[in-house]
Amino acid sequence: MSNFKEETKILSSDGLRRVIERLTHQVLEKNSAPGGVVLIGIQTRGVYLAKRIQKIIKEIEAIEVPLGILDITFYRDDLTTIGPKPVVKETQIEFDLNGKTVVLVDDVLFTGRTIRAALDEIMDFGRPKKVELLVLVDRGHRELPIRADFVGKNIPTSCRELIEVKLEEVDGRDEVMIVEK
Amino acid sequence: MIWRKKDLLGLEELSKEELELILTTAASFKEVSAREIKKVPALRGKTVVNLFYEPSTRTRVSFEVAAKRLSADVINIATETSSVKKGETLIDTGRNIQALKADIIVVRHGSSGAAAMLARHLSISVINAGDGWHEHPTQGLLDIFTLKEKLGKIEGAMVSVVGDIAHSRIARSNIWGLTKLGAKVTVCAPAVLIPPAIEQMGVRITYDIDEALANADAINVLRMQFERDEKAVFPEQLEYFKKFGVTKDRLKKAKKNIIVMHPGPINRGIEISNEVADGANSVILEQVTNGIAVRMAVLFLVSQVQDKRDEVIN
């Protein structure tokens, strides 16, 4: 069976919820004044993760931290080397970034190139006091000197494996899988 | 849906999905112009050449702004001060631009089919910025983008195009694009300015401006080009205004929130009155803003197409 795909579940729906709650607590612990924190989610699943974190912060601290959306397509470094891209999604940052602590949210940290592009794009919007990176899964294989400040789960992977993050809002269910290509 | 065309020559050859992809991409690019730093690096290191054989300010400037907001380098060639005056052919000019390692040529030419001919002879991308009476695809796209933004969707929209349909590439691009996306298009003009067999493009014809306005969700008022051909067929500007000019009184009988569009430059008091051009229903300046987003999208999409060497005539 040549197209057989081996799948292993890393996080169930409950596990995912606990990880996101812990990550939110870690963000609040590190930033004692959450009034200066803004969340920016990277399209697509980073946005939904950021929305969940925003909701949990509201429950704990009773404040709504601003949430921005970033599509990094225009800042990619492989625009000229890999063929045509699928549809470009929206970027929406409707607040001032200057002097703020940006918590950049993505689902999987892999080569680090998406984060490099996101950092460049953020700098075009203003000069944040600092940028912290939050990822649900760090799967290794970095190609740039980038590291995350908050990691949900470290999952060492081989290059033949993929991490699939499924979120209720886009995929209809919550789980994280490791899939053999 | 993935964009695979190296050129944008007209809306006639685009599928509904390709049109929708351009419109969605343009919506993403619109946000860039609202930023404090109105620039993204998507076309960094690419060269865009504006090659204009006909006078143009807004289209050329719009393409230039769009390319610069994508970080491309832009070169403008006005043919009056170029070697075209020494008799160089369009294809030779194009080949020279290609030899300079430019990536995209934006061409406007007085002859229908000029952009398509250039595209066949070059391996780099060609974008049609207006060819004769044939098409002006980015204008058609920006009109449709503006309509979609205002109406929410194009499917089922009633759109009237008023003015010199016979000699208007803008009319043709609008008709192709709008009908593909499911709008119902009516054209309105004096009989001499309606081309034969236009109904085969799937449009309704009327010679009465009030009928064109009745039930329309939007009206696209074309520029009367008295400096070109219209003098011969319609000698009196004032007579045109009386019979076809879009005025406040005529608009009173239309839908209250009818959208009034005009590609510019406006002939005030000929095809449209001052009150309408500057009135609450007018989206004329929004069209200009949207033109940048649409042209950014087109430049971006064609620049992504690799393997441009196919089917080039040498």
Commentary on this structure:
The complex is a heterodimer of chains A (about 180) and B (about 325). Chain A is an alpha/beta fold and about 180 residues long. Chain A has a single domain, classed as 3-Layer(aba) Sandwich (Rossmann fold), CATH 3.40.50. In chain A, about 30% of the residues lie in helices and about 30% in strands. The longest helix of chain A has 18 residues, at about 15-30. Chain A is globular. Chain B has about 325 residues and is of the alpha/beta class. Helices cover about 40% and strands about 15% of the residues of chain B. In chain B, helix 1 (about 15-30) crosses helix 12 (about 285-305), helix 5 packs across helix 6 and helix 5 crosses helix 12 (about 285-305). Residues about 310-314 of chain B have low confidence and may be disordered. The interface of A and B includes residues 83 and 92 of A.
Short description:
The complex is a heterodimer of chains A (181) and B (314). Chain A is α/β, with parallel strands linked by helices and 181 residues long.
Give the arrangement of secondary structure elements:
The complex is a heterodimer of chains A (181) and B (314).
Chain A: E1 7-11, H1 13-30, E2 37-42, H2 45-61, E3 67-70, E4 101-109, H3 113-125, E5 130-138, E6 150-154, E7 161-166, H4 168-171, E8 175-180
Parallel strand pairs in A: 2-3, 2-4, 4-5, 5-6
Antiparallel strand pairs in A: 1-8, 7-8
Helix pairs in contact in A: 1-2
Chain B: H1 16-30, E1 47-52, H2 58-69, E2 73-78, H3 90-99, E3 104-109, H4 114-121, E4 125-131, H5 137-151, E5 158-162, H6 169-180, E6 184-188, E7 204-206, H7 209-213, E8 218-221, H8 230-233, H9 237-244, H10 248-252, E9 259-261, H11 274-277, H12 284-303
Parallel strand pairs in B: 1-2, 1-3, 3-4, 5-6, 5-8, 6-7, 8-9
Helix pairs in contact in B: 1-12, 2-12, 3-4, 5-6, 5-12
